[in-house]
Write a structure and sequence with these properties.
The structure is a single chain. Helices cover 61% and strands 0% of the residues. The protein contains five helices and no strands. α1 runs antiparallel to α4, α2 (13-28) packs antiparallel against α3 and α3 (32-49) packs antiparallel against α4. The longest helix has 20 residues, at 54-73. InterPro entries: Trp_biosyn_TM_oprn/chp.
């Protein structure tokens, strides 16, 4: 975010918007695509640092640092989405929502996710 502000101040609005979009992409991606994004950020940061304006140089350095972190630590960073969240084993509320997602009636005693299965 700091790099986007630096590029905006240097008059490089497209680079500022690219930095903001890369934040969203870094959160949404995982694995190899996240590392490819990191490499692209390093390339963009180095190219932007040659703009000559001191804010562009600062923004370029920040983008290079973030790109290197993406490449080095990208596999360890969490990805956005429900799949990465851990739920408690016997949470009645979660069991009811899962039953609804399957199309079962959680209030029906005969249904697999019904009240009698939680006892």
């Amino acid at each position: 975010m700091g790099a986007a502000g630096a590029f905006w101040g240097a008059g490089s609005v497209p680079l500022a918007l690219l930095c903001l979009a890369s934040v969203a992409a870094a959160v949404a991606l995982s694995g190899v695509p996240r590392r490819i994004l990191g490499v692209l950020l390093v390339v963009v940061g180095v190219a932007a640092a040659f703009n000559g304006h001191w804010l562009a140089i600062a923004g370029g350095v920040l983008v290079v640092v973030s790109g290197v972190l993406q490449v080095a630590l990208g596999a360890r960073m969490p990805k956005i989405g429900v799949g990465g969240q851990k739920t408690r084993e016997h949470d009645p509320e979660t069991d009811m929502w899962r039953a609804l997602e399957r199309g079962d009636d959680p209030t029906d005693d005969k249904a697999p996710g019904g009240p009698s299965s939680n006892e």
